Amino acid sequence: MAQKKVFLGEEFLPKQWYNLNADFPTPMPPPLNPATGQPPDDSFVEHMGNIFPMNLVEQEMTGERWVDIPEEVLGIYKIWRPSPLYRADGLEKMLDAPVKIYFKNEGVSPPGSHKPNTAVPQAYYNKVFGINRITTETGAGQWGSALSFACQLFDIECHVYMVKVSFQQKPYRRLMMMTWGADCVASPTDTTEAGRKVLAENPDSPGSLGIAISEAVEMALARDDTRYSLGSVLNHVMLHQTVIGQEAKLQMDALGEYPDVVIGCAGGGSNFAGLAFPFIADKIAGKEVQVIAAEPTSCPTMTKGPYAYDFGDNNHMTPLLPMHTLGHNFVPAPIHAGGLRYHGMAPMVSHAVTQGLVEPQAFDQIATFNAGVSFARTEGFIPAPETNHAIAAVIAAAEQAKQEGKEKTILFNWSGHGLVDLAAYDAFLSGNLTRYELPQEEIERALEAIKDLPKIG
Amino acid sequence: MAQKKVFLGEEFLPKQWYNLNADFPTPMPPPLNPATGQPPDDSFVEHMGNIFPMNLVEQEMTGERWVDIPEEVLGIYKIWRPSPLYRADGLEKMLDAPVKIYFKNEGVSPPGSHKPNTAVPQAYYNKVFGINRITTETGAGQWGSALSFACQLFDIECHVYMVKVSFQQKPYRRLMMMTWGADCVASPTDTTEAGRKVLAENPDSPGSLGIAISEAVEMALARDDTRYSLGSVLNHVMLHQTVIGQEAKLQMDALGEYPDVVIGCAGGGSNFAGLAFPFIADKIAGKEVQVIAAEPTSCPTMTKGPYAYDFGDNNHMTPLLPMHTLGHNFVPAPIHAGGLRYHGMAPMVSHAVTQGLVEPQAFDQIATFNAGVSFARTEGFIPAPETNHAIAAVIAAAEQAKQEGKEKTILFNWSGHGLVDLAAYDAFLSGNLTRYELPQEEIERALEAIKDLPKIG
Predict the structure, then answer these.
(1) CB neighbours (10 Å) of residue B41?
(2) B431: Cβ–Cβ under 8 A, 6 or more apart, which residues?
């Protein structure tokens, strides 16, 4: 009987995170201080140290290829890591294409996604730094629930600003946060300057990650014992997620396999980076591997947005980051994949795209739920709406292999389960899901917001 | 660093199910034909063959100690089995008692509970027998979703009667069933005689497992290509679940451990039996091990109900089963642990109780959610409301060990996660959970229903 999955013992947990910044053929452009338009000087680093604990600010800037994972973090990783690698033979059979499909199941963590891979070290570094209160934003709630889980284990207070449309669509993720002892409110709120500004313009704003980030950062800056935590986009987040790809390489190796195609969905970029970066390191070293990042057509950051300096948030509180962006005021349509509703893309992922190391593809909401239901009905596990974008890309890659008549091995990141996103499946199965188009003129209007910012290069 | 969990490779999947009926010191009383008051004769077996496929009827009656697991079933078990065994060191630390606590995590299956352990073989045996449509009932929805998952993989139609109170409280489990292609309706319905009878007496009936069983059996009998499937209570269900305990023994063994106390929650009895029966075999053979079955005070079948012949359903369609029962018309309070709202207890579990092999304990809803939140905040995973009963018993056993000043090793069945039961946690955390008492006179009134039935022995 064929092997269905590969488990690794806890002794195979990676002991270091991998930093792709050490291996890019051309270095990333630096972030810029928006006040000066210059790379961060000491006073700016100090300012960042008011937003994040300084040990994480240092990790954000490190050029080291390998960063040790603290013992305390490994101790908590062991609750769900190493995560299993699966063969999707049921899906293969349905697709009837010359492909083998493997996926890394990140849904086995307590919050059900890859997010605790970075939530746990972030809570740890905050704790070590003496911080006892963390603020954050969340889209679909995967990040907020992961950080709530991590903060609970380190006895840190957690305050979450949840994008309003997701707060309404996904009450169960808010309840997960409550169960882990966190506070969760619908953003925009009237408790911050940033929130009040948005509400004044549009009292019915569905919110966005950019707005929620502004609120959380503002609250972190307001108190000495509080810092802000971001679940994606930043370098240290990408770093933490690389345990996924490192484990996957060991597991594929145990099966005598190496992928021809590596796929992840990308909103801020972290689950994609986590699986892909260790393989991109091989690609830089000369190995042939196609790497695909799947995003929604309603928020086509990489496929339609320019590579430019932009703010990470709505309210100009972050440094200027070099990234694919639709402009920091862009408010994506309320698709169910709330975790992919972000105007920008992680600088590291964006840089990998511009270097030709990553191929972005966009999929519409209907196509992704078609893919997700096919997966659920052949493999059993019900995927998160975000993950459905990766599955749509897997199906497209399988169809391409069929057309080319080439045998291919596909590996993708099953970034989380959809058990608390079932209202979205309900909408899809009853024919009530909207297929959002994003007109070019709307993109151009959104990009007005960055036209006066410094340019890259 | 201490080991957190034990995974077993797929090669360690049990190849046979264990049948405790081969080892009981005193044999179980037989079921009775309600029409004759006698043990089943040929015509009665034939009648049962109209409800269940005959291959499962034969398995129900087998006295063999070991029953081979078909290859096709093993192939699907591998999607989530062997399930991991965890050390609950976070909970241990909180309890500060001289105990080691281990749990078997059955929440890793696609539907999130132990139920597919029997749903998959039942769907398989139906398929082999040429059945292409299965009806069933479900309480909290764990069984209905598990059977939907299994039927989808074997390309069988699945029709689920869901107890109305759970249908309303747990929309997400219904959506899981839909996603796996099943039909799910709120019971009582007006589409069956059984349902109409209940609605005529009480149009606002919250439903019960007994009523839903009657509806599903009636619909199975109405069509030749259709059979009924039961997720608990019956012998073959207990059999299928024993993969849990067999794996747990291997995993405890790998750690050099053997439990002093084995604990499971019990509604119909299947997850409890699955973990406990392989250990009860050891107990019968002379090994010292305490086995505890945890039930709700609002449905205290084992702690308050007599051991007597009773119908498995509300409408007198099943054989008379020898079991601890509160009477087949008993409608339990609408607690959130919907899977524990059953008037009877599996004949095999009931018999083990009467033989002194199992010690039943009852816990009220508030105590169980207290236990569940403690677990979620120390171990990360959020348990199902049913599972919270087992955790309440674990905490009680740890407190007893502390009082006795004895070191103990506790093993319990973490029968499923609570990610789609979060509304119940919301009610608990906001102080809106009801503590149901069950007055003795209400029990006596319910037991009127069985006073004219044949007696055991």
Answers:
(1) 11
(2) none
CB count within 10 Å of CB B45 equals: 15
Please name the residues in contact with A259: beta carbons below 8 A apart, sequence gap of 6 or more.
Answer: A102, A252, A279, A289, A409, A410, A411
Across chain A, which has 457 residues, the per-10-residue mean pLDDT values are: 91 98 97 90 90 96 97 98 98 98 98 98 98 93 96 98 88 94 97 96 89 92 95 96 98 98 97 98 98 97 98 87 96 87 95 98 97 98 97 98 98 96 93 92 96 93
Contacts of B425 in chain A (CB under 8 A): 175, 178-179
The partner residue sitting opposite B419, judged by closest CB among A9, A112, A152, is A112
- Residue A247 and residue B206: Cα distance in Å, rounded? 48
DSSP string computed for A128-155: HTT--EEEEEESSSHHHHHHHHHHHHTT
Nearest CA in chain B to A373: B179
For residue B414, the cross-strand partners are B105
Class of domain B5-12+69-112+236-450: alpha beta
Please report, as a single letter, which amino acid is at residue B274. Answer: G
Contact A5 B10 (CB under 8 A): yes
| Chain A CA closest to residue B86 | A79
Q: Name which of B3, B78, B179 is nearest A4 (Cβ-Cβ).
A: B78
Residues B224 and A322: their CA atoms lie apart, in Å, by 66
* B15 contact A CB<8A: no
Q: Per the structure block, which two tokens stand in for A412?
A: 């993708």
CA A370 to chain centre: 22
| Alpha-carbon span A196 to B206, nearest angstrom | 45
The amino acid at B136: T
How far is the C-alpha of B265 from the C-alpha of B366, rounded, in Å? Answer: 15
Q: How far apart are CA A25 and CA A399, in angstroms?
A: 32
Interface A-B, measured as beta-carbon pairs within 8 A, has a size of 117
**CA of A141 to nearest chain B CA: how many angstroms apart?**
13
Task: Write down the pTM of the prediction.
Answer: 0.96
The angle that helices B116-128 and B54-61 make with each other, rounded to 10 degrees, is 130
Q: Show residues of chain A in contact with B176, CB under 8 Å.
A: 382, 419, 422
**Cα(B160)–Cα(B185) distance, rounded to whole angstroms?**
6
Q: What is the DSSP string of A49-93?
A: HHHS-HHHHHHHH---SEEEPPHHHHHHHTTT-SPPEEE-HHHHH
CB contact under 8 A, A175 and B426: yes
Query: Which chain A residues touch B175 with a CB distance below 8 Å?
Result: 422-423, 425-426
Spans of all domains in chain A: 5-12+69-112+236-450
